[in-house]
Amino acid sequence: MLEYNDHIAVALSGGKDSLTLLHLLVKLEARFPRTDLTAVCVDEGIDGYRDEALRLANNACTELGVKQLVVSYRELFGTTTDQIAHAKLSQTPCASCGVLRRKAINKAATIAGATKIATAHNLDDEAQTVLLNMLHGDPLRITRSGPVLKDPRGKFMPRIKPLCDIPEKEVMLYAYLTGLDFQSVACPHGHEALRNDIRAFLNQMEVKHPGTKFTLLRSAERLRTQMGSQLPLSELHECIRCGDPTPHELCEACVMLEAVAA
Ligand code: SF4
Ligand code: ZN
Question: Please, what's the b/e burial string for 23-32 (b: 16 or more CB within 10 A of its CB; e: otherwise)?
Fold first, then answer.
């Protein structure tokens, strides 16, 4: 995942997962003098929620001596997650928020001059996403994600998920034992029904059949290794609105922003 001279943009939300990741990467970086770290934080514009997370993220960066770059949906896209939730689009606020966050983190990482983006998805997140893709009828998406994402066309900055095979409970344990000050209140829009149902189902399965989440992760890896290279890569053009690479005329984020503006 990591090379000796990487400049890693760590996506930092102020939650336990991203603060744990930052903490671990700071420790690793100290052993590799040619590496660099920048924490990138995104203000989605969620009243009564994001302010606290940004304050905790800022405290952690100051304490650890890590550079921090904050970008907001309002300045980048002229809207906020609160406004998107209010617009009641056909997709959930989380689906829209996720698309914009990817774009915002890419922009921040580019501004920071990073070579890689590290996100704090843990084993539970990854296992849920495998099932979510199946239940959304998009199994091929599984082959396009994974712990290390490197675009062979070189159009997107590589992304890594160093915590992808660490169970959420172990990340939580690390955060508590290390005394990390993390945000514990949940996002008011974070009730994506299907993911919550999958989370509850997988937690039950894990109790009855320990190892279920690992098995899902390994199954996805096997699919990726056996099928991923055989699938054709879509041709990318510049989005006519924002210029980002996309297989369509408009990128996913611009389609969504148009729907919000309508
Ligand atoms: Fe955005 Fe959903 Fe996360 Fe809230 S829970 S910050 S709406 S992705
Ligand atoms: Zn676009």
Answer: bbbbeebeee
Cβ–ligand 1 distance for 94 under 6 Å, the answer yes
State whether the beta carbon of 11 lies less than 6 angstroms from ligand 1.
Answer: no
Q: Is the dihedral of CA 252, 247, 116, 198 positive or negative?
A: positive
CB 250 within 8 A of CB 241: yes
| Residue with CA nearest ligand 1 atom 8 | 94
Is there a contact between 175 and 182 (Cβ–Cβ < 8 Å)? yes
Nearest to 14 by CA among 46, 3, 195, 28: 46
Least confident residue range of 121-130, 214-223, 251-260: 251-260
pLDDT in tens, 105-144: 999 999 999 999 999 999 999 999 999 999 999 988 898 8
With a 6 A CB cut-off, is 18 part of the ligand 1 pocket?
no
- pTM, two decimals, is 0.93
